[in-house]
Amino acid sequence: MRRPLSRRFVLSSMAALTAAALAVSGVGTGVFAATAGPDLVRAAAQTSTGALTPSTKRPTPLPGLPGAAFGFVPSTSAGGSSGGARASAGHSTAARKPSPKAEPQVNCAKVKCVALTFDDGPGPYTAQLLKHLEAGQAKATFFLLGQQVKQYPELVKAQATAGMELGNHSWDHPQLSRLKKKVVDSQVGRTNRVITKASGGTKAVFLRPPYGDLLRSQRGQVSMPLALWDVDTLDWKTRSTKATITSAAAAKPGDIVLMHDIHESTVRAVPQIVKKLKAKGIHLVTLSTLMGGKVKEHIEYGSGLRPRR
What GO annotations for molecular function exist for this entry (predicted)? Predict the structure, then answer.
């Protein structure tokens, strides 16, 4: 039976390997002293010609080696980013979260604009729709159902990151005009909360009532601008890519176009819609941009098509 390696031998071997790695990487011995355990420091002192001096800086893991191998613990203190130390001045090792892509500055009072809007998502085809919009350098506004946000939170985050605008379309698509105040408050409030959470902090700007139906007396209780539409593509009814292209591409400057990203036929139509509208010199923008960034609570934007009472 082989004799077990002594603790002193193990420490000496580890120290020698570590000292060599430090020399190759160019990391100072002070960093090693700050991160290694006391036994390993003492062993290294016997195998390294350099004196070990304590460092007040937080250590950076060696390239290609996990930080935990040297006792590295990411900082989670307030005001500091996870990932801890700076390898050198002005360069952080922390992974940065992707920032939302800002919408290009477009003045719709001076150029032709149309707002494409999509209801009832997110859904199985939303990711593909985002790819089409980004490929065409187009922005849009998405009116989300709370129950769908719960099912596809990652898509809401993707929409916000892509610079799309988020809107509230109620929790599960009831006709709000038939509901009591407490229920309307719940439908709108719950949806706003899950949108903000899923998106990473981006809030819904507009409320689009399902069917465009909200009593005049109810508008005052909803502390959001209200979004209707000017062009109803009827994509939910026709389920025809060709018909959706024809309807949406006929939009005039200033129009709000209504579509639904839960239908594959609609998503297939988007590249041609974008192409045809841009060929007319029309900018495809969010609803807020279409309105010049000046929207007010309780006010309806767009003509809408309300159900008969």
Answer: hydrolase activity, acting on carbon-nitrogen (but not peptide) bonds; metal ion binding
